[in-house]
Amino acid sequence: xxxxxxxxxxxxIGPEIMVHAVEALEAAGDRYGHVFHTVELDAGGxxxxxxxxxxxxxxxxxxxxxxxxxxAAVGGPQWETLPGNLRPERALLGxxxxxxxxxNLRPAVLLPQLRAACPLKDEVLMASNSEGKPGFDLLIVxxxxxxxxxxxxxxxxxxxxxxxxETYSRPEIERVLRTGYEAAMTRRKKLCVVDKANxxxxxxxxxxxxxxxxxxxxxxxTSYLYVDNAAMQLIRAPGRFDVIVTSNLFGDILSDEASVxxxxxxxxxxxxxxxxxPGSSGAPVGRMGLYEPIHGSAPDIAGQDLANPLAMILxxxxxxxxxxxxxAEAAALEAAVNAVLDQGxxxxxxxxxxxxxxxxxxxxxxxxxxREMGRAVLNAFSLSA
Length: 385
Ligand code: NAD
Description:
- By secondary structure, the chain is an alpha/beta fold.
- Helices cover 38% and strands 20% of the residues.
- It has 2 domains: 1-106 and 266-385, Isopropylmalate Dehydrogenase, CATH 3.40.718; 119-261, Isopropylmalate Dehydrogenase (3-Layer(aba) Sandwich), CATH 3.40.718.10.
- It has helices at 14-32, 45-51, 57-65, 90-99, 122-126, 170-185, 201-214, 227-236, 248-261, 310-322, 327-342, 370-383; strands at residues 2-10, 35-40, 68-73, 103-109, 137-143, 153-155, 162-164, 190-195, 221-226, 243-246, 269-276, 287-293, 345-346, 366-367.
- Helix 6 packs across helix 7 and helix 10 (310-322) packs antiparallel against helix 11 (327-342).
- Nicotinamide-adenine-dinucleotide (NAD) binds at residues 13, 73-76, 89, 92, 265-266, 292, 295-301, 307-308, 311, 347, 349.
């Protein structure tokens, strides 16, 4: 099968890590008989340098024509003094809005090999974990194109009063909830709606909408938490969660909280999903998606072979799963990442502090650079054939 993918390497460590995701995709294509046609797009700081704007219209247009978009990271200190609408990060907002990707999926998984990087105690990690092992595996589904970040805002004439508005319509809530339920159906079938329905009218609409939709998914256990309680439960018993669905603002905060629990942002991938992709390849693709690591362009380590490429590779795996429906291919890439961690390979950001043995890895830790880590994933992938 043929698929078309828009690649946005961006700035800083972006191009260094993108290379390894593309190699991983090619390896998956070779093994499973797919062709991934890629087109590289200018966006971010490099686009400002080349064309004077962070997201040239032709980049957005080309991205829209593809089946999915894989983005590394944008931004850097050299562009920080530009006015807000000309900064590299505008490319992200422009792509999200232009591709109409309204549901942001952020998995947060504590891998046993990286146990040492998690700040929580064993007894906390055991709490409410149905498998009786210290760990968690949760997915936060955040509404991405509505709510207070997009609502009416302003200042009074004297500037001394300001307001922002949280507005949600039932269809906006329904489509993101449905994304959450569909994800829950492929996981442990638990979904927690996080809101502030004791105070906010918009949250009461979220809860009503969720209560109605829960009836369509009787196999899924639906629960409700106020956001303040959810923030506490994430650090008291993260193992109790499977899928969390929430608004843009609450999801922004909770997904950062959850990412800290996993130890390294160099490991975390994300997907932002829209509706059915138009697709240029003719493949029976699913939803348009923008896939990216959650970290930024890490200018402090760019060009030094220090960046962890695993979040980028795991983002490519999410693309295979959610936009192309290629579950076996995605799982094989994830297994290859797991295998290199089992071999004790670590980029500096996930190495255990001061020790040569890390986490629960069977082998001593070996600190490697970006390129060696990327090659090791490819090796592990080919050995698993
Ligand atoms: P950052 O995520 O780039 O870096 C934070 C810290 O984590 C740094 O010490 C960095 O070295 C480290 N780090 C990040 N990714 C890593 C990786 N893959 N491997 C090893 N270490 C890694 O966040 P920041 O420093 O606040 O931002 C740097 C630039 O990135 C800014 O211009 C910011 O606006 C931009 N940014 C872009 C995105 C995006 O493209 N989605 C997201 C966040 C920040």
